[in-house]
Write a structure and sequence with these properties.
Number of domains: 3
Distance between the termini: 68 Å
Largest sheet: 8 strands, antiparallel
Number of helices: 2
Oligomer: single chain
Number of strands: 32
């Protein structure tokens, strides 16, 4: 070996899966990625072995030499990942020996020598100082850092897929070569420098691997205005990136910060289509005594495993009209009452789900949200085609201002138009929707 050439592999502890640090002579033995929790972070698993140790033939690294014992050193690990990915603040080898911290200088050197390109970035890490346990014991380490799927500020989901690539290198630690010094690479990725190699895994093997991913985002908007004592419809967009999957079975809930207010989504559950954007209407009732001002409306989309995405919209509450003023959506019908007195008909607002499939309607029912200017007892019926008998019916008591939720269920629903009829004292209000095939 020529003078000044460093070819020592340094490992803490002996035996299989020991943590190692290299001043050269390292090879990537395994690289793979999986997505956790359906729409969770991406875990990249990287196994590196010491060239020349058991199960790790020498000659496949940039240094082209096998590892030697007797030195201290640090491992360098770099990941090329999507620009939107969120690197971890650090990680530890699976056997708990080597601790890796972010290295801005290693990140910068990788970018200098192998620019990540549009939509990509490097994330470089350096290990704690390690000592080598000599062969013939197997010498390798495995790390499994997790990268978050960054979303847009407006709730836009991470865009599938997740391309990735890993490199590994090492450097010597001794005397003036302190573990705190910046990482300095050579003229190329394959060149030795700083008493080691910045990339000892083959520098030519920088072709991305690709992992298909799934992610959700909830986008709110606004402001949407409503008078105190009224019912507002606040639109949200549920955006999904990835291939449709029954694993992405989303449960929707809503809330508002308006004092005394209530909020319900028009759809309670859905499985989004591949790479889709679905509008979800949230009905928000505001008490008559609510103070004018801006309030939040939040829509939460949750999976069974606990992964949740939320979005927020603005609800602007204004003062109610002066006495004698009008407003709202009126129901039909005639007067009712006795002894010369009349009972004012409530003004009714009905919200039906959009883009609802007949299979989903059969499984979970059709959610009907009703707002009312006063408390009232009503009958809600569901019809299809020209049939005179309803496929489902319920009697409910409307809250004021609502929304009041009624779920109409029938196992014989078919694709096509349907109508909902709400009948109360002195009024009959029909609304129509369509059950789609998808």
């Amino acid at each position: 070996m020529a003078a000044g050439t460093v070819r020592a592999l340094v490992i803490a502890g002996g035996g299989a899966l020991s943590a190692l640090a290299l001043a050269g002579c390292a090879q990537i033995q395994g690289l793979s990625a999986t997505q956790l929790q359906v729409i969770g972070p991406v875990r990249v698993a990287l196994t590196v072995c010491a060239s020349g140790s058991v199960g790790c033939p020498e000659g496949s690294s940039n240094s082209g030499q096998k590892a030697l014992a007797g030195n201290l050193g640090q491992v360098l690990v770099g990941f090329r990942i999507p620009e939107a990915a969120v690197p971890p603040a650090g990680f530890t080898s699976t056997n708990g020996v080597a601790v890796f911290a972010p290295s801005p200088t290693y990140t910068a050197e990788l970018e200098r020598l192998a620019p990540a390109g549009a939509g990509r970035k490097w994330a470089g890490y350096i290990s704690s100082t390690q000592s080598y346990a000599a062969p013939p014991s197997p010498q390798a380490f495995t790390v499994q850092p997790e990268f978050g799927l960054g979303r847009g500020a407006d709730g836009t989901p991470f865009t599938t897929p997740f391309p990735y690539r890993a490199v590994v290198g090492a450097r010597l630690v001794q005397n003036s070569l302190t573990p705190e010094r910046p990482v300095v690479c050579g003229a190329t990725l394959a060149a030795g420098a700083d008493a080691g190699w910045c990339v000892d895994s083959p520098a030519g093997a920088l072709v991305d691997l690709v992992l298909p991913t799934r992610d959700l985002g909830v986008r709110g908007g606004g402001p949407v205005s409503v008078q105190a004592g009224g019912l507002a419809t606040v639109p949200f967009t549920l955006a999904y990136s990835g291939t449709a999957s029954p694993l992405v079975d989303v449960q929707l809930t809503a809330a508002t910060t308006a004092p005394g207010g209530s909020a319900l989504p028009g759809v309670g559950q859905l499985i989004p289509a591949s790479n889709s954007a679905t509008t979800v209407q949230v009905a928000v009732g505001v008490p008559a005594g609510a103070a004018p001002g801006d309030y939040d409306v939040t829509l939460a989309a949750a999976l069974a495993g606990g992964q949740t995405r939320t979005g927020t919209a603005t609800l602007r509450v204004t003062a109610p009209p002066a006495a004698g003023g009008g407003g709202g959506q009126a129901g039909g019908g005639g007067p009712a009452g006795g002894g010369g007195a009349t009972v004012a008909r409530p003004r009714i607002r009905v919200i039906l789900p959009s883009r609802l499939s007949f299979r989903q309607a059969r499984r979970a029912g059709i959610r009907v949200l009703v707002g009312s200017t006063r408390v009232a007892n009503v009958r809600v019926e569901l019809f299809q085609t020209t049939a005179r008998r309803p496929k489902a019916a319920r009697r409910i008591r409307l809250k004021s201002p609502g929304p009041t939720l009624v779920v109409l269920r029938s196992s014989v629903l078919r694709p096509g138009p349907y109508r909902v009829l709400i009948t109360g004292e002195g009024f009959r209000i029909p609304r129509r929707g369509v059950l789609r095939v998808r």
